[in-house]
Amino acid sequence: MTPELKKRIAQLRRGELPNGYRKTMLGIVPVSWNSQRVDELCAITSGSTPKRNNPDYFTGDILWVTSGELKSKYIFDTKEKITDSAAKDSGLVLYEPGTVVIAIYGLEAAGVRGTASIIARKSTISQACMAFTKFQNVDNEFFYYWYLNHGEMIGLRYAQGTKQQNLSVDIVGAFLVCFPEFHEQRKIGAILSAQDTVIELKERLLAEKRRQKKWLMQRLLTGKQRLPGFSGEWESVTLGDIAAYAKTHAKGERKNYVSTENMQSNYGAVIFSEKLPGFVDGIAYRKGDVLVGNIRPYLKKVWKADRNGVCSADVLVLRSSEIEPSYFYYLIARDAFFEYVMKSGKGTKMPRGDKTHII
Questions:
Q1: pLDDT over 90 percentage in the chain
Q2: Domain of 92?
Q3: Quick one: which H or E segment has residue 12?
Q4: Separation CA 338–CA 352 (nearest Å)
């Protein structure tokens, strides 16, 4: 990083405008960049959904993109495909490759808000999507990354609706896009595309490693595969024979507080707010305990404590003096355990595990 770049970053952090930059509603950009409304840069249209009461509509080979499919940069295929008659009767447009598509319905959900893709094959889109075509002055990939950068904020601040938050053509079309000369747009897009490729490769590698780990857990934790130098029969016990719930209430630092809100799904970590001051009452846990989120157990929230602290009543604290802590954690952090918990789950919208059934 050059000294000049460091200086600019320091100025921005102090809220100052570096020389040669200007402030816009979506951030700070160079004064040399142009600005135009979205609806001046491209054509904006939305899609439609063929009537579900005609199942024949969904037996064709025309790609039909839904908002839930806007996950990766390019869309090569879709879960559902429609017929020519479905497209004609629903007034659907068959978009060319290179069209940018964003999600516009249900933006109250973080996983939907701000998502976008570029279609790689001729496709139609659902009513929950918006398409951008016929770009002028901006490259479609530059626009795609522009929306990824600002879409979250646009959805949070400008989506309308009470129960369901949606965007309209008028709202999106009114936003200003700041952009450099075309050749610089292309270079920016190429750099960001290269990073996308690296991320995709690493995610594939990570997914394969997770698959290998899951396979090993299924083999090693059930005795189907034994390690060299070990033999003999395994002892079969119930969870209650080797563990118990920690039930002691205490006051602990708020920065070490665990609830179902800061426990991540699918065996993820716990996100702590280290800067939170003060203390809070809760159930005491200690280093080595296994904490399990007991609201909607199918979310598979489990954590091996790496510190002492307190947690909410909706988090189960499992403590074992019989089993090595890491081994105990992996006994719990399995799909089979959470499937067992869900068998006794109580409630429909927010099911909870039955503590007496678990232990």
A1: 77
A2: 33-193
A3: helix 3-13
A4: 11
Predicted local confidence at residue 256, as pLDDT: 94
Pairing of strands 62-65, 123-125: parallel
Structure tokens at 101: 């598509």
Q: What is the DSSP letter of 120?
A: S
pLDDT of residue 274: 76
Q: Please indicate, yes or no, if residue 232 is contained in any of the structural domains.
A: no
Pair of tokens at residue 111:
């996983």
Position with higher pLDDT, 322 vs 145:
145
Residue 336 parent element (H or E): helix 335-343
Q: Confirm whether 7 is domain-assigned.
A: no
Contacts with 151 (C-beta within 8 Å, 6 or more apart), sequence order: 102, 113, 114, 115, 116
3-state helix, strand, coil in the chain (%, to 5): 35, 25, 45
Residue at 299 is within a domain: yes
How far apart are the C-alpha atoms of 332 and 323, rounded to whole Å?
A: 12
Say if CB 142 and CB 189 are below 8 A apart.
yes
Closest alpha carbon to 255 in 179, 309, 319, 321: 309
Q: How many CB atoms lie under 10 A from the CB of residue 342?
A: 13
pLDDT digits (tens, 9 = 90+) for 114-163: 999 999 999 999 999 999 999 999 999 999 999 999 999 999 899 998 88
- What's the whole-model pTM score? 0.72
Confidence check: pLDDT of 11 > 80: no
Residue 167 sits in the same domain as residue 51:
yes
Name the residue type at position 289: D
* Number of compact structural domains in the chain: 2
